[in-house]
Amino acid sequence: MFVTDTLIATPGPTEIPHRILLAMARRTTNPDLDPEFFRRYDEVRSMIAEMLGARKGNVIVWVGEAMSGLEAAVANLVRNGDKVAVLSNGVFGDAFADLVRAYGGAPIIHRVEYTKILDPDKVVQFLRSEARDARVVTMVHCETPSGTLNNLRELAKAVKSEGKLLIVDAVSSIGGVEIDVGWGVDILIGGSQKVLNLPSGLTILAVSDEAWEAMERVDYKGFYLNIRLWRDVVEKMEFPYTHSEPLINGLLESLRMIREEGLNNVYRRHMAVAKSVIRAVEAMNLRLVPESESFSSPTVTAFYVPNGLSDVKAIEVARGYGAFIAGSWGPLRGKVLRIGHMGYTASINAMTNAIVALAKALNDLGYHVKIGDAIEAFLGGVRA
């Protein structure tokens, strides 16, 4: 195949725009000692705080893939023997239960099918019955393996109505979907490698005042995952360990790009592109994983592999046509294909590329679709 550049249309890690690549390539200094680096780090915190409705002093960005933030949230809030309410409608929701067990906690799981989203009313019932003794609740905002988006605003309200602390995995939604930690989120975790279009390697944390107080009571003794060690790093001009200057430079550029476009415009773009990708998927007679389109995430579209086709082969052939799409995880492995439209790739040009590559791959594998119909459905959705 005559492909010069392959579009990364997976739901993270994602395509990295040239502006961010150039920012990461700048000459570095010593981030432990240079006041200018602390100024840039503080600017990053300010812009993230603005995005999330948080106070700057409650925002942390540290070196480590986002899983380090998920584990840290549990490690810093869960004591041995604590009951923890785990709300799950997917692979990563279930993973919180494993983290709770790893730190000696007892997960009490409220699970719904991967094709559905969490119902706030049923969550309240759960928290008043099986999980009434739980002090901490965990949930995932966007479940990328199934392409669903939970209603964070209403779920946070439900959790807070029962007086519990809420940990939220927002790794695949931060930057592409509206989030306000003021809704009732106590620790929100984001990552650099999804909508923010950086390589993996940075974790974003937004911590509530109530969570800081709870962490003091738990008194986690670890070092690398100890959130409390990061509370006053700018004021002290001292990081617990050496930061990544290239990644912070890239994140600062990413946040500036979002500010230039306007945060609400970014959210509208993700929503419009997601709906248009769904129109293209439907035009190819492919079935969405979420049982209702209203459950679908603005950052990823998941659909079932046609009967008799291999997800691995479809990915391989599509890549030959210039777009790298993804399969899925857990119980959905081998059954589902996914297209990520995150940040830079939530665009007409990127998704046209991805849809053409997918359609060509399906045709080559014997599942016949009309490429023109798929593209027209996509473009018609964007224009609508």
How is this structure best described in words?
This protein has 384 residues and is of the alpha/beta class. Strands 2-10-9-8-5-3-4 form a seven-stranded mixed β-sheet, sandwiched between helices. The chain has helices at residues 18-24, 35-52, 66-77, 91-102, 120-128, 152-161, 209-218, 233-236, 245-261, 263-283, 311-320, 348-364, 371-383, and strands at 7-8, 59-63, 83-88, 106-111, 136-140, 142-143, 148-149, 165-169, 187-191, 202-207, 300-304, 323-324, 336-340.
CATH architectural name of the largest domain: 3-Layer(aba) Sandwich
**What is the succession of H and E elements?**
EHHEHEHEHEEEHEEEHHHHEHEEHH
Output the CATH homologous superfamily of the largest domain: Type I PLP-dependent aspartate aminotransferase-like (Major domain)
Number of extended strands? 13
What's the pLDDT, averaged over the residues?
97
Quaternary organization: single chain
Principal-axes shape call: globular
Structural class: alpha/beta
Number of helices: 13
Essential attributes:
15% strand, alpha/beta, 7-stranded mixed beta sheet, 384 residues, 13 helices, two-stranded parallel ribbon, Aspartate Aminotransferase, domain 2, 2 domains, Aspartate Aminotransferase, domain 1, 13 strands, globular
Summarize the SSE layout with pairings.
Layout: E1 7-8, H1 18-24, H2 35-52, E2 59-63, H3 66-77, E3 83-88, H4 91-102, E4 106-111, H5 120-128, E5 136-140, E6 142-143, E7 148-149, H6 152-161, E8 165-169, E9 187-191, E10 202-207, H7 209-218, H8 233-236, H9 245-261, H10 263-283, E11 300-304, H11 311-320, E12 323-324, E13 336-340, H12 348-364, H13 371-383
Parallel strand pairs: 1-12, 3-4, 3-5, 5-8, 8-9
Antiparallel strand pairs: 2-10, 6-7, 9-10, 11-13
